[in-house]
Amino acid sequence: MEALYRKYRPKNFDQIIDQLQAKLVLQNAIVKDKVSHAYIFTGPRGTGKTSVARVLAKALNCDNRVNYEPCCQCENCISIDKGIHPDVIELDAASNRGIDEIRRIRDAVGFRPMLGKYKIYIVDEFHMLTREAFNALLKTLEEPPEKVTFILATTNLEKVPATIISRCQVIEFKNFTESDIAENLLRISSIENLKLHENAARLIARRAAGGMRDALSYLEQVASYTLNGIITVESVEKALGLLPSEIVDRYIDYLLNGNFIQIDELIDRIFIDGYDVYQLVQSAIEKIEERISQKPSERLLKVAQGLIEISKELRFVENKKVICKILSMNLAATNQKTLEQTAPQIEQIIVPTEQTHESRDRRPDDKSQPEQSLQIEEILNWIKEEKDLSIYVALVQSRISQKNNTVEISFLPSQRFQYEYLREKILELEYLFKTKAKKDIVINIFIDEEREKRILQKLQENFPGKIRIEE
Question: For position 51, what pLDDT does the model report?
Fold first, then answer.
């Protein structure tokens, strides 16, 4: 069975979706007989670069062309569609990147076309050629024989030497819009007798991130999963292993409302069910972008910015679950306004830096403030700005105090994963404190069970009859 993205590859310019720049430039060049000797097609994957290259090859070699459109019925058009035309040579530079392959092309360009009018060389991912191969291609690109056209496709134009770019016409391909992808998916589904729901088509389009080929591959995968059933949003989520929408919405709501325990339980449940927490954050970014577009607010923007920072951190760490928990709970802490207003006397569970008992007992007029708290705050800001954001996030959820050259970092029993994380980083943590403080520092990290009991007792006092402590 032929893959959908190959079966519905555009056969002429009229079938090419969007990409107006590419179509106008190439159509005018064909009509005016001013086709360049070398083109660079650059853009994201799955945006039609190779498909447009084949359409151009057919238009140049078609026996019955009308203006710029190939007939798609003559021998040249059919053989190009099948990939067997002797004058249209396709080369994958990812697997043929050496100087020998380019030398063979250089030796072959001198021969006249065998069947068509033009000899076309389509080199895909040509940015992966070696430096020697690029150098061997330079002279051929600058002065190719008559009736020879190079079409060089790449997803990374920045890796192409400037000497190559200066010898070619560069045509940029852009991502397809979600509406264009969804519309095409619905059209193809009707042809294939697939019952695709419109919302499901939009979800696939969003997941494809602008690539039509990816979208068609996803559609094929979902169709295999649902067999003869209706393709809904739920079936797309299950077939592609996406997180259910309600879980993502719940995660965002927890962040906005400062629900620490619920965030902890939600991430644990996601991990147990086999989902990727990085995907949770990415889906949350997309969801909150929708909320912002519907009703912008400062809180939504702050959470969106925090989610972006979490996404960046998760890309380069191994224990994504722990880091996602720490960063998510810290983000939720910034939105915990309700608890602070209703119970201002309750001791805060999460604080950036906290004074020791001795410093809290000082009178307001006592000007002999200790220097330790200020130093710790400076160290925390330094770690946040220049060193390790993950360590900073774990630190701000602890209680920090200093006694001479010893820094005590305590956590509640419910913050065990932050405690374990910093225990693993204790050598690095001591090094950071020593570097900033310019003296020897000993770090002591421990679980403070007594502090949790005091917090629970205060909760009982402030909310009589509503808080129960189980031994």
Answer: 92
